């Protein structure tokens, strides 16, 4: 599993205002989601400024840890390109940094909820390690 979190997003919102920060985060989510899917991962949670992604769930993948690492490297490469683009458009925006944690181990994966709201979740100690 992989957890991505944008460093300093709260400060960015304060500096730019919520509408412009939302537009930037929308573009960042586009990068994150595509790079996870490029390596057959599943985005199971979207936070205010990041994502949690699973590799090897719901479909088992023998090389799931390697896919998570490749995805994280792809995200870092794409964020460098994105920063270059943003820098040309708005010089006042500081470079955006993405923190990424990858952890492997057994977890229980499934849907939680009812007909009003359902979420695809990973539960267990190993799911928590990825967040730190």
UniProtKB/TrEMBL annotation:
Cited InterPro entries: A/G_cyclase (IPR001054), Adenylyl/Guanylyl_Cyclase_3/4 (IPR050697), Nucleotide_cyclase (IPR029787)
Protein name listed in UniProt: Guanylate cyclase domain-containing protein
Entry-linked SUPFAM superfamilies: Nucleotide cyclase
Residue span(s) of domain Guanylate cyclase: 1-126
Species of the source: marine sediment metagenome
One GO-annotated biological process of the protein: cAMP biosynthetic process
A matching Pfam family: Guanylate_cyc
Signal peptide: none
PROSITE patterns attached to this UniProt entry: GUANYLATE_CYCLASE_2
PANTHER family: ADENYLATE CYCLASE, TERMINAL-DIFFERENTIATION SPECIFIC, ADENYLATE CYCLASE, TERMINAL-DIFFERENTIATION SPECIFIC-RELATED
